Amino acid sequence: xxxxxxxxxxxxxxxxxxxxxxxxxxxxxxxxxxxxxxxxxxxxxxxxxxxxxxxxxxxxxxxxxxxxxxxxxxxxxxxxxxxxxxxxxxxxxxxxxxxxxxxxxxxxxxxxxxxxxxxxxxxxxxxxxxxxxxxxxxxxxxxxxxxxxxxxxxxxxxxxxxxxxxxxxxxxxxxxxxxxxxxxxxxxxxxxxxxxxxxxxxxxxxxxxxxxxxxxxxxxxxxxxxxxxxxxxxxxxxxxxxxxxxxxxxxxxxxxxxxxxxxxxxxxxxxxxxxxx
Length: 277
Ligand SMILES: [Zn+2]
Ligand SMILES: [Zn+2]
Known about the structure:
By secondary structure, this protein is of the alpha/beta class. Helix content is 22%, strand content 27%. It has seven helices and 14 strands. The chain has a seven-stranded mixed β-sheet with strand order 6-5-4-3-2-1-14. Strands 7-8-9-10-11-12-13 form a seven-stranded mixed β-sheet, with helices on one face. Bound molecules: zinc ion (ZN) (2 copies). One zinc ion (ZN) is lined by residues 10, 27, 74, 76-77, 176, 239. Residues 10, 27, 74, 76-77, 176, 239 line the site of one zinc ion (ZN).
């Protein structure tokens, strides 16, 4: 398996000279499993560029069937979907997965951000055949050999982590969750256990978390301690705060590496190979 980062920022897109190296698009990761069909984690603004790349691919002209797993429906994880070009082609088919909630259907949340007050095109007019799949904590298989497990973690409004197993390799995607070194959830440590790659929320510094407690995010040092405790091979620091410049982020990467050596800053455009940590 490989992963490619198309958006690594949290909260809001962050264009600008001092964030250009790491990138300003919000959460979106492509999981490359060797199957032609795309597997996508979150639909932040990074999914726009991924969509353009998929459309440029010759295979896409035959029509493609893809899977989009949403950790949750905060803006920075869904806002790119109305700009996802493959969803406008009737030849294409997408399965969009997110937490099943008693109070609101996943489909209605995605449709809501495309109401005419906010956007000129309704979701029903996008063209592709889009199926919504409401998840519980469960394990299911796509493409015949890609196993996906979901677990709920601590974030305002809830969030799901994804553990993806393919040909013996393990990818864990765990963003938008608030834990500290002192209160790491044993359930999260187990969920991340022995991952070849853990992608984890590193939005804040410990100083920032003191004033943003309850906002639903972790720190780069907690990411490193989690990676250590879960025995993962490689850690990607992800969901960068919009206020953090490239220089600050590289500093945070170095601080994480001092705790857990195999820490890497998730950077827009970066591909990580789970074979070669
Ligand atoms: Zn987020
Ligand atoms: Zn969130």
